[in-house]
Design goal:
mainly alpha; Glycerol uptake facilitator protein; 8 helices
Amino acid sequence: MRSLVAEFVGTFFLMLAICLAVAGGAGAITPFAVGVMLIVLVYSCGHISGAHFNPVVSLVMWKHGRVTRGECAAYMVSQVLATVAAAIVATMLHGRGAVAAMTFPGLGAALASEILGTFALLWVILNVAVARATQGNSYFGLAIGLTVAACASIFGDFSGGVFNPAVAIGGAVFGLFRWSDLWVHVVGALVGALAAAGAFRLTDRGR
């Protein structure tokens, strides 16, 4: 229960930061604002739940034996519920129709962006939070948050820079994305995460 509460709180404020930054017109600084929020949330929840805040992170952590299958499923449910709750709160604050749903410049570019961004994110997470050689470091939160900020800046114009199926669902509830495009974020995140997990297995010195 402690872990599920931490996952809910962390994912809720991550999603709320995304919604309010976009609806509030933060523009180019949105990735930075979201990245900073993620940094502090990872540090605040990492010792409780591992600070996944992302279903594909939980999936990869299950594959690496960090959580059980049941815990993984519970984490995912908590994360999705948190993004939906955050989207509802953001809608209450800004009103329905506060943002216009993103239209991808091209489905191929959007899918590739989600794959590449998720790969980079999971690669960093695995190497700073799972690899034995870096265990006990104090920079894991910075590395993860800055990766999200950088990748969101790089790939945002192509796909929205989501890299997180739960955030994609919350974004669709808030109106950031079209429901018909949800598969791009889900498939892209799954492919990118699994590819990163495979690459990590080939390079981790602790194996």
